[in-house]
Structures are given as C-alpha cells and as structure tokens.
Specification:
- It is a single chain.
- By secondary structure, this protein is an alpha/beta fold.
- Among the domains are: 61 residues; 135 residues, no CATH class.
- It has 21 helices and twelve strands.
- The strands form four sheets. Strands 4-3-2-5-7 form a five-stranded mixed β-sheet. Strands 6-11-8 form a three-stranded mixed β-sheet.
C-alpha cells in the first residue's frame, strides 16, 4: 500500500480524512437537528446531546467563517475589478542601484526600524486568522488627552521627532506634486493628530477646521499642533456643523478659499474628516492623481434627486443643471476649486441649493462635476451614476454604507446610522481596497484596526522609498471617470 501511494500522498490522505470527517459531521448534525426540531424523543443524556449539537455547530461556524473570508477576499481582489496582471498595483523588486547618501540619511532618520503594533500580529489580522482577530478585539489602549498635546507642542522639534513625522518630501515626484487638504474635526485630538501624521509631507498644505461646538481644550490642542508646522493652519472662523445642512459644506468651502490664497502650487484638493485614514501612501496618492490626468473623483446618483431639492417654494434649478447627489468628500483638481470659488454660476447654484435642497452638501460638488456644459476641467460627460465596478467608481473614499447596492459590504465592526465603523476583522478588506481613504474609524472601538493600518502605510512608505516595493498606478488611468472626463 505504501508503495502504491508513496510518501507524497500524505497531503492527499489528510485531505481525504478531513472531507470524510466533515461529511460525517454534516450527516450527523442533520440527523440530530431534524430529530430535535421535529420534537422526536431521543434516548440518552440531554446534556450529552446538547454538547454534540454545540460541537457540530462550532464545526460549521468555522466552515462558514472560512467561506465568508474567502468570499470577501475574492470580492476585493484584482479579479473583482477585472484587473489584468499588467495593471496590478504592487510588485516586489530587487534594488540594483546604489543608494545615494541622501537616501541613506533619510533611512536612518525615518525608516531605521519596522513599524510594529504592540501585542498584535497585524499580518495575522490581514489573513483574518480567527484567534488573532478575536484576541485583538479585546485589546484596549490608553489615550492621549487634550492637555497632553497642549504640553507636548510647547516644544515643537521634540514633538515632531517623538511623534514620528516625516519632514522630507522623500521623492522628487512627490515634491513636484503637492496636495491640498481640508480636515474637519470636532472631537478626539489624538485621532486627528495621527491622521495628520500619516498624510503629512512638507510640500503639501493642510487646512484644519475645529467645530464651533468642540470644547476649548480641543481647539487649543489642535492649535498647538498646527503651530509646529509652516504648512498647517486653522480656520479662524469656526462653524457649528449640523448634519444635513449647508454648515457641512461651509468649512470645506472656507478651507478651499484659504488654500487657494495661500499656495499656487498644489495640484489636487482632498477633503477629510478626523475619523478617516489613508489607504494609500503619499507616493501612491501622487501616482494615482497623476493617473487621473486632471479628472475629478466625485460620486453621483440621479435616482430620487428631486426628492432632495423640493423644499416648499423651491424654484427651478438655475443654468439648466441636472441635479445629482453623492458624497461631500471628493478629490478634485485645482481648476475645479477655482470654478467653485470664483464662477458666478457656481455661486448661483450654491444659493439655490441652500434654499431648495434638504441636503445641499450631498448635491453641490456632485452637480458641479456632472454638468459638463459648464466646461469645468475634469468634469464627467457620461451617464453620472456611480457604479460598483470600473465603469464609474468612487475611489476618493471607501465608505461602507452597509445596505447600499453600490457602497455596501459586509461590516465586521459596528454599524452606526447605516455606516460601518471599522473593526479588527475589517483589516483584511481595508488592506486590499483600491480607494484613497477609508471612512470611518473610532479610536475607542477596536483600536487595533487603526493601528494595523498605520503599520501597513508606514511600512509601504519605507519599502517604496527604499525601492523594494513598486507601485503601478495604471489601473487608475483605466477608470470610467478618467476616460470620460470633459
């Protein structure tokens, strides 16, 4: 028998045993469940029967967990997007060129060691190992307080060094392609600061808005952080933001205006909240935005749009526009910002939406981008409906709107108002998403998810800088809103 099967057959025998075991378990479970559910009396110890059923349920829970994991991976990998091998994002490579002294110095200053999360194996979370996910969920972390930041930022050089900010542009390509950001925040200074650290580069520029309702210690702490950087500033005017109103849009418009006035070199504008985190390194963001070739990344739907702009006494939309709505969060070129701020038609539309639309923040940027007769650079000239595939996706942000056909995925964290707050079991999905940023995280809920994303982005930044990891942005140049721009 051993001669016929050979030693190489051991994996086959093991697989056969497993298959037979699962088949027997399934038949046994079916028998017991059938008997129990049909109220047939079964002789024997009831406790033993319960244990058998519990054990079989655990077996099938494990099988379902593995199946769900594989299904989720398949839905978010390159096959789902229809990406051919030549357009895959990452590839390892061997460094053949001798490193310059500047590269050596930067490595010594910023990338001397791997970033590793304490007490957790993030690679195991990415692989969604059941035991590691379960263990990571229970981990709690001590949080920095507002007063800690107020004290730390009294010595800016020490703060910048101790908190691990990268104060170099890293590559010439990144230096020549600065990005403008607005960040709207109202609570949790530490989460805001860690977001800023993840996206900070000296060539970029950052506008911060602290909600008027935020306590004064939050404003003071954020003000201290901003004072440590020449390219980070706070809006002087603070808005009391209320969901569903113009106040959601107002801080972004004010930041746009300040960013426009303060710098003439940035290429794209991205608006964030303090509860988000990047899925791409700064180098990758630059590569992607260049692949956009001037197009704007803005979500849109025309379904039920009139229901959002039919307030009492509402008048007809101005300038022959077709109203679309999407998300307020965008990635748009500098000319789009110029049009938004300075074109009279854009101002007329803003005034009309404020009077006529129930949720103007969802409609304003989306409508400006999907009415190509305005001639805005990068606007979309095709059918505006955002899709789940490459026809016209929304890449600026990954928002898991659980019940949505377009934006909904399985949520392994917790759901608040229909939106997924990411947890540790979501790290696998986040690690392979194609979007630029993910929304949303709460540091007081399964904080390891946030920490593992920090580890991933930091180590990718290092590997790309050192030349051991190559990033290919060609996929993004094939997206529908890039090919169909006006």
């Amino acid at each position: 028998m051993r001669f016929l099967l050979g030693y190489s057959s051991k994996p086959f025998i093991l697989a056969l045993v497993i298959c037979v075991t699962y088949t027997f378990s399934y038949l046994l479970k079916t028998m017991y469940v059938s008997l129990f559910h049909n109220h047939v009396k079964v002789k024997g110890n009831p406790l033993f029967q319960d244990l058998v059923i519990a054990g079989l349920n655990r077996v099938f829970e494990d099988i379902k967990y593995d199946n769900d994991r594989e299904k989720e991976i398949n839905q978010t990998d390159d096959n789902f997007w229809g990406i051919p091998p030549e357009l895959q994002l990452y590839s390892n490579r061997t460094v053949t060129k001798r490193r310059t002294q500047i590269q050596i110095n930067i490595k010594r200053k910023y990338f001397l060691r791997d970033f590793r999360v304490d007490d957790v194996n993030c690679l195991e979370l990415i692989n969604r190992t059941r035991e590691e996910v379960k263990r990571a969920k229970s981990i709690k972390r001590a949080r920095l307080k507002d007063a800690d930041y107020i004290e730390m930022t009294k010595n800016c050089p020490t703060f910048i060094k101790d908190r691990g900010y990268i104060m170099h542009y890293l590559t010439k390509e990144e230096e020549s392609f600065p990005i403008a950001y607005s960040i709207l925040m109202y609570q949790n200074v530490e989460q805001f600061e860690r977001l800023l650290r993840a996206i900070y580069r000296p060539q970029n520029i950052y506008c911060i808005h602290v909600d008027f309702k935020s306590r004064e210690t939050i404003h003071n702490a954020v003000s201290g952080i901003a004072s440590c950087f020449d390219n980070v500033f706070l809006l002087r005017t603070r808005v009391s933001v209320k969901l569903g109103g113009m106040s959601v849009l107002e801080p972004d418009l004010k930041c746009m205006n300040e960013l426009w006035s303060r710098s003439k070199t940035w290429k794209y504008f991205i608006n964030l909240t303090g509860q988000e985190f990047p899925l791409r390194t700064n180098y990758e963001l630059v590569k992607i935005l260049k692949a956009y070739n001037g197009s704007n990344d803005v979500a849109a739907t025309i379904q039920k749009d009139t229901e959002r702009c039919d307030k009492p006494r509402a008048v007809a939309p101005p300038h022959g526009i077709h109203v679309t709505r999407g998300f307020v969060h965008v990635a748009v070129n500098r000319d789009f910002v110029d049009f938004t701020l300075h074109d009279e038609r854009a101002q007329h539309i803003l005034t009309w939406m404020n009077r006529s639309c129930y949720v103007p923040d969802e409609a304003y940027f989306s409508t400006l981008n999907h009415n190509p007769h305005f001639g805005v650079k990068g606007s979309f000239k095709g059918h505006p409906e955002t899709s789940r595939n490459r026809r016209k996706p929304y890449i600026a942000r990954f928002k898991n709107v659980v019940e949505s056909e377009v934006y909904g995925w399985k949520c392994h964290g917790r759901e608040i108002n229909g939106l997924c707050v990411f947890g540790t079991a979501d790290v696998r999905m986040l690690s392979v998403r194609k979007e630029l940023f993910a929304h949303r995280f709460h540091l007081d809920y399964q904080p390891v998810a946030y920490e593992c994303m920090e580890e991933l982005i930091y180590n990718r930044t290092r590997d790309e800088f050192m030349g051991t990891l190559a990033f290919n942005a060609s996929f993004y140049s094939t997206l529908g809103f890039v090919l169909g721009q006006g």
